[in-house]
Design goal:
It is built from one helix and twelve strands; from the N terminus they run ββαββββββββββ. By secondary structure, it is mostly beta strands.
C-alpha cells in the first residue's frame, strides 16, 4: 500500500495498475455561500471612482480589488453583514491614471462588507530529515473571513 494525494492505493505488482480518482476528490474546493443578502447603498456618488482598482493592505497581505470582488483574508473579528472601511490603500488606478501612495494614498478608502466567517482550506506541513528516518506531518485549518468589496472612494485631501 502506498498513498497518492492522501488516497490509499494498493499495488498489484504489475506496472500497469490503474488508479481511479474522481475530479471531486482531486479538485475539492470549498464553495462559499453568502449568509445574508446585502443591500449596498452608495451615499457619496460624486466621490466614487468608476472602473477603478485599488491595492489594499489587510492582515499583513496586499489585495488588488475592484468593485464587486469577493476576497478571502485572514480572520477579522467582525460580525457577518457588518460594513468595514479599508483605509490602508497603497495604490489606486484607472485606465487613465494611477496614484501610488507614499506609503498610503491620501483620502482613498475602500468599503467592504463581511459576507462569511469560515475556514480556509487545510494546510499540511511535512518535515523530513534525510537519512535519519525522521518524518513529521502536521496540519491545521486557518480561520478566514470572506469580504465583498463595495465602493472605492477617493476624497480630496484637506487643503492647508
Amino acid at each position: 500500500m502506498y498513498s497518492i494525494l492522501g488516497l490509499a492505493v494498493r499495488s498489484s505488482g504489475s506496472f500497469q495498475s490503474t488508479l481511479q480518482i474522481t475530479s471531486k476528490q482531486l479538485f475539492s474546493q470549498r464553495a462559499f455561500y453568502s449568509t445574508q443578502n446585502l443591500n449596498i447603498v452608495n451615499n457619496n456618488k460624486e466621490n466614487v471612482v468608476d472602473n477603478s482598482f485599488a491595492v489594499v493592505h489587510l492582515g499583513g497581505k496586499q489585495y488588488k480589488v475592484i468593485k464587486g470582488d469577493v476576497i478571502m483574508s485572514d480572520r477579522i473579528h467582525v460580525e457577518v453583514g457588518e460594513h468595514i472601511i479599508l483605509d490602508k490603500v497603497l495604490m489606486l488606478g484607472t485606465k487613465e491614471q494611477t496614484m501610488i501612495g507614499t506609503p498610503l494614498v491620501d483620502g482613498a478608502k475602500v468599503h467592504a462588507f463581511i459576507e462569511e466567517q469560515s475556514k480556509a482550506p487545510k494546510v499540511t506541513i511535512f518535515k523530513r530529515k534525510r537519512r535519519k528516518n525522521y518524518m513529521r506531518t502536521t496540519a491545521f485549518t486557518p480561520l478566514a473571513t470572506v469580504l465583498r468589496i463595495g465602493d472605492i472612494v477617493l476624497q480630496s485631501p484637506p487643503q492647508n
